User: What shape does this take?
Amino acid sequence: MLFSEVLDEIFSRKAKHKGDIKLLHIRNVLHRLGDPDFAFKSVVISGTNGKTSTARILESILRSFGFKTGLFTSPHLVSVTERIAVNGSPISEEQFTKIYEQVIPIVEEYEEELVLSEEATTTLSFFEVLTVMSIVAFASENVHFAVVEVGLGGRYDATNVLNSEVCIIAPIDYDHQEYLGSSLEQIAYEKAGIIRNADIIVLSEQAETVQEILSTEVEKAEKSAVFVQNRDFRKLDDYITAPNSTGGIMNIQTSRGIYENLYLNLLGDYQVTNASLAIVAAEELIARDGHTLGFKALELALQDVTSPGRLEVLSFEPLIVIDVSHNPHGAENMVNSFRTSFEYDYVIAVVGISKDKDTEKMFEHYEDLLDCIILSENSSDQHYSTEDLKRIALKHYDQNDVYEKTSVNDAIDFAFELADDMHDLKVAILITGSVITVGDALIYMQKPKFQRLLDTSS
Assistant: This one.
């Protein structure tokens, strides 16, 4: 098969079942593939914001220590192959195709049997097949640890078929209410579903109601190895960043030691929480293998870590930043961190948002940072129209500060036109609102006219 044919097939798959029965089907498929999920040790990460960065930091630490690693994250920015990485590198299109060709006959055979047994509405979704593919990839590559990010929720997410050494729960807030529930308590309950399959639990600081839910789930699962932020580990000082830097200095204390003057190659105060979660998880994983996390390995890992699309600087002159924050909590973190990380006089933003997001609250946070907004429609068929976005934006901005462009490409071109007219100001261009919007921007900015600019100024 061609890679393009694989994409057409896998993206056309829709879920037609829910709950425990979904996990049962995935386990059955894995069993027919030889139980590849038992070939490596895993860490599963849930939460609302910070999952991907936490996963990337942890994978970098484990790899720096000498372990062969797998990494499964979602969604992707440009290519679906980004979601499955081995030893820090995404698998190739050829590898992706080969794994799909190995997995899909087993999936289809199983689905046909379900049809014959009158479970005719049951198929595995795109994400479920992709999860199976990642597990097969990690087993075939003989990884020692696989760091796995939950796709949606936790309790019934495809990744919850794994029996993990450690589960991490990053900060929980409102998102995907149509699937996870309208209240913070319901969302927390769904995300806490990964606790039951883990040996060690690492929890970020949470709102009180969320912490109560997590504590209850820990008690129900009878887990004793539990590490809670600001009880068992904490940051010792404020995160220190310098102008024109892509990271900052942090100091972390855990139950196993103090790590001082660590340079983390990620911007944003919230990344200190993500790094803390990853460090504690790494300590416990490595301790189980009879070792101690060495400072040098940790230092090198944090210096080298990347998390594309997370307050990522594409250029300093002019200042161009992309950020995939797509819910109010993420937007708030982005705004606060942008203000402390960069020097600027005026911020022009290209904004495209998906329909299922709390756009009103996102714009409340944008108002604290953005001087001018260019509304756009990304390539997803689930985007807000610029007309709908404008109605919300005008509650926070003057008419003269809000523009509409049909595509992300046109919005980016217009942002540069506006910036060129502001010769006396240090102008920043921010592209945000959705993973799809940022992905569209990255694809467009691979064009030669942008590459010359970015290569010269970065």
The longest strand covers residues 257-264. The chain has two domains: 3-304, 312-457.
